[in-house]
Amino acid sequence: MQLNADLGESFGSWKMGDDEAIMPYIALANIACGYHAGDPLVMQNAIRLAKEHNIQIGAHVSYPDLTGFGRRSMQISKAELISMIHAQIAVLEGLALCQGLRVNHVKPHGAMYNDMMRDALVFEHIVEAINTYHTPYPLMIQATQSAAKYQATASKHNVELILEAFADRAYTDDGSLESRSKPNAVLNNEQALSQAHNIIYKGSVTTVTGKTLQLNASTLCVHSDNSHAIALCKKIHSLLVV
């Protein structure tokens, strides 16, 4: 099990998270590519930190929504979606090569991630975007009870999947994440650490109604856009290195 976090999400003078403090505790850094957050300097700094800590980087692609932090769904044509995913990967890839680093994977952000998980057509379009890029990087998606369905689509397009679970987000009974509009959607550190323990050692999560769901995840995500993320990453890291 590897710990991953969404980083590089500052923009200009606006700061989000503390990349430098979190980097020592993760294995995979999903770096924003300028559409929901991030700018060239922020991306360069995130890449530099990843290189210093020997961390693999991924392109954290999004709808073009800086104002809404990529959390608003958009109706976008297949051609436009594929082109904007290619553009975001290319920017991170180019900046990474300038520092002697290579991209390891792609992970959609926010609304694009949610749309991908609930809409089979959006998922297929994203898989096609990965497949038609010059290097078909692995695609990170949520581990759910329907993993076989997503795997079938990805395999059809020769795309590898990385299945992730979430330490700090509440789950619903169908295996999706509780909407951020709900007050219990983001877990506090005590709850998140308990959930991380269950994911790591039992491969399961407990939903908001108390139901137990088995997940086949290979990576665990902690969101860096809250003040408790660093402490949580430290504690989860200690669970993973025992």
Task: Write structural notes for this entry.
The protein has eight helices and nine strands. It has helices at residues 19-22, 40-52, 78-98, 110-118, 120-132, 147-156, 189-202, 229-240, and strands spanning 2-7, 28-32, 56-61, 103-108, 139-142, 161-166, 204-206, 212-214, 219-222. The model has no long low-confidence stretch (mean pLDDT 94). The strands form two sheets. Strands 4-3-2-1-9-6-5 form a seven-stranded parallel β-sheet. It has 242 residues and is an alpha/beta fold. Strand 1 (2-7), helix 1 and strand 2 form a beta-alpha-beta unit. The longest helix has 21 residues, at 78-98.
Give the gist of this structure:
The chain is built from eight helices and nine strands.
